[in-house]
Amino acid sequence: MTLIGYARVSTLEQDEALQVDALTAAGCDLSRIYVDHITGASTTRPELDRAWDYLRPGDTLVVWRLDRLGRSLKHLVQLVGELGQREVEFRSLMESIDTTTPTGRLTFHLFASIAEFERDLIRERTAAGLAAAKARGRVGGRPKALSATQVEQARRMMSEDNLSATDVAAVLRVSRATLYRAIQGET
User: Fold this and answer.
1) Considering 10, 72, 92, 113, which one is annotated as catalytic?
2) DSSP run (H or E) holding 34
3) pLDDT of 14-53, one tens digit each?
C-alpha cells in the first residue's frame, strides 16, 4: 500500500508548501506527491492525471482538503467513486475522511447522499417551475421567427403578388428555410 499525495494551488502566487508539508507529515513520500498549479474549475489537470495513472489497487490517494481534488461535490463524489472501483482508498486530511475506515466510508457516503439529494431537489424544482410556466401559458424554447400575421402576409405575397420565396424571405428578413417551415406550420 502506497500513499499518493495530490495538491493543487489555484494561482501562481499561491504556494503549495503548506499542502506538501501536510501530505509528507501524513506519510506520503515526496516523490509521490503530484502538484497542479491550476484553477479548480479547469477540466484538465495534468498532475492529477499522472497520479491517477500511478495509483494501483490497495494504494491511497491523499489530499490536504476536499476542495483541492473536486471541482464540485458532484465531481468529488464521481472521482472517489472511480477510486473505489479501482480498489484505491481516499483520504482527506483536513476533513478527517479516510475511506480505509468504516467511519470514513460512512462520512463520504453521507456526502454522496447529500449530493444526490441536492440533484433530486434541483430536478424537482425545475420540473415544478416548467409546469407552473406552462399553466400560465408560457412555453419554453426559442420564439417563433414569424408571427401568424407575417405568415399570412408571406402567403399572400407569394400567391397574389407572385413574389418568389427568396424575395418574400428578404422582405421578412428571414431565411428561405425559415419561411418554408413557417408556411408549413412548423415554426
Assistant:
1) 10
2) strand 33-37
3) 788 999 999 999 999 999 999 998 876 777 889 999 999 9
Contact (Cβ atoms closer than 8 angstroms) between residue 111 and residue 77: yes
Our answer to whether residue 10 is catalytic in this structure is yes
Listed by start position, the domains of the chain span 3-113, 148-183
Answer for the pair 119, 74: CB distance below 8 angstroms, yes or no: yes
The pTM of the whole model exceeds 0.85: no
Burial class (CB in 10 A: 0-12, 13-18, 19+), 73: middle
Architecture of domain 3-113: 3-Layer(aba) Sandwich (3.40)
Separation CA 89–CA 105 (nearest Å):
10
